[in-house]
Amino acid sequence: MGDAALAPKEHLLITFMRDLAPDQLEEIKTKFPGLEVSSVTLKRGEDIPSELARKASYIVTFTNLPKPEDAENIKFIHFLSAGLDHAIQHPIFKETAIPLTSSSGVHAPPIAEWTVMNWLVHTRKYAYMYEGQKKHEWRDSNSGYFQGVHDQVGKRVGILGYGSIGRQIGRVSHALGMKVYAYTASPRPTPSSRHDNGFIVPNTGDKEGTIPVSWHHGTDKASIREFLALGLDHLVISLPLTPQTTHLLGAEEFALLAASQGSKGAKPYLTNISRGKVLDQEALIGALKSGDLSGAALDVTDPEPLPAGHPLWDAPNVQISPHVSSSGVEYFPRSLDIVKENVGRIKRGEELLNVYKRGKGY
């Protein structure tokens, strides 16, 4: 009897905006021993060449996608980002039913650390102390440092979008002694409905959904405003950008958030790790100038990059970073962990992790 022909290996294609180092590629090949692995460097948004796309079984990408006519053999496309809003106009979204998966969950640990870092920089007056250090000044409590400094114990944090990132922020906030209030688009009335079924970095997050002291939901303005009226000390925005969430928060919402605090002390602090367009940015500047907000930490702006002359740079008590809160050496390996899990699920006929819902936009 002759030897049976060996079936060709499935092909994992990774597209990137820069060359992968040889050791990175070897590490990836080790992670996927049953697959043929290759990478290609493409410009941002450039379509994947037909000769490469047609050989691929799985694609890992930030912004590069195949033409629909080249995608017949593709079993899923994995994005190296949590949000897919930057690519939804591509025909692959509208003209195919290929499963699209995100890296949701990968970002949770670094973004939670970035969030709390900014809170503490603000409330512990780090900038004031650092300026004193550079000037060789001993700025103790007699220098004005003491005024307004406080810890986070007992503070109320409302997390608008209690997904993987929101849950890790909730976990860290809870460890600081804070009260966590969760907000989701759809109702989560039962313990099972509050479970996180997406990718979770081990020892992080809130898988069972037991950390919040209360859950809130809705997609209408009235529900959002009811949430903002809870007397929050912190509002964290962790929402996907969709037509419904664009400019979701503006002058009226900021005023309500501030008014709900009454005369208890410092006005609420806003953190946005979502997308810049979720906020009315001019209204945000106004709320910072008026004191309705005590400050804001922004990892996202509208537009990006933020022009050098934009007034947001000089708004009072604002801390801006250039969309880097999720960065870290762990990012890429963790994202590939999702790919590895989903390749296994394809072979076992199981539901994939982190599937993008075309009808919902996230």
UniProtKB/TrEMBL annotation:
Q: Does the keyword Oxidoreductase apply?
A: yes
Record organism:
Aspergillus parasiticus
Among its keywords, does the record have NAD? yes
Q: What is the protein's name according to its record?
A: D-isomer specific 2-hydroxyacid dehydrogenase NAD-binding domain-containing protein
Recall the GO molecular function terms of this protein's record: NAD binding; oxidoreductase activity
Note the superkingdom of the native organism.
Eukaryota
Q: Which UniProt keywords apply?
A: NAD, Oxidoreductase
Task: Please report the stretch or stretches of sequence annotated as the D-isomer specific 2-hydroxyacid dehydrogenase NAD-binding domain.
Answer: 119-191, 218-325
